[in-house]
Amino acid sequence: MSRDTTLILLVLAAGIWLGMQLKVLLWQMKRGGKSRRYDRYTKVVPFQPPREKKIDAADQLRTVMKADFKAKALLNKSEANLFKALDKLVIELAPPGWQVMAQVSLGEILRCEDKDAYFCINSKRVDLLIVDEECRPHTAIEYQGGGHYKGAHATAARDAVKKEALRRAGIGYEEIVGGQHTLAELRLLVERLVQKGS
Q: Which of the ends of the chain has fewer CB neighbours closer than 10 A, N or C?
């Protein structure tokens, strides 16, 4: 190997090394001079990659504009039948202004100062919700259809979270199992709920 080739390789290696050092220095400056810290009392602080950019409304709009959407029913057939029956009974038996609502987000009817606890319930929904004349939540109704207990452990855990959050907020919770309640039994349920709420 000639002397000129050796010199070129040394300059190239030095350039690569300096480039890497500069990159590390710029990265440390970007993080406010913080790098891995060593001292005899603490462990090494692990590397944390920078957070990804939040998706804003414009990004969401671009994504939505590229997709095809189709409308779907808010409730399946069994849930819709229950909704109609309960709605009719509430109109008949409850004070004026009471009504039944469908697929209500718990994040819309519950407040909590504990952000972690709120995050646990925010995206969960109840199948039906009976509200009073001022739209205050009175009783959540969960319909347990035939497919409800597939993956029973996860389903039971989700239901327990909803039930406990509602209980802590003073909102009633009732489960209706598909095919196990007659119209007369639903009438008794609504009468009991109305008496409790009066």
A: N
Q: Any idea how long the chain is?
A: 198
Three-state secondary structure of the chain:
CCHHHHHHHHHHHHHHHHHHHHHHHHHHHHCCCCCCCCCCCCCCCCCCCCCCCCCCHHHHHHHHHCCCCCCCCCCCHHHHHHHHHHHHHHHHHCCCCCEEEEEEEHHHHCCCCCHHHHHHHHCCEEEEEEECCCCCEEEEEEEECCCCCCCHHHHHHHHHHHHHHHHHCCCEEEEEECCCCCHHHHHHHHHHHHHHHC
Long-range contact pairs involving 181-184 (C-beta distance under 8 Å, separation at least 24): 183/85
pTM tops 0.85: no
User: What digits encode the pLDDT tens for the residues 94-143?
Assistant: 999 999 999 999 999 999 999 999 999 999 999 999 999 999 999 999 99
* Residues facing 144 on adjacent strands: 177
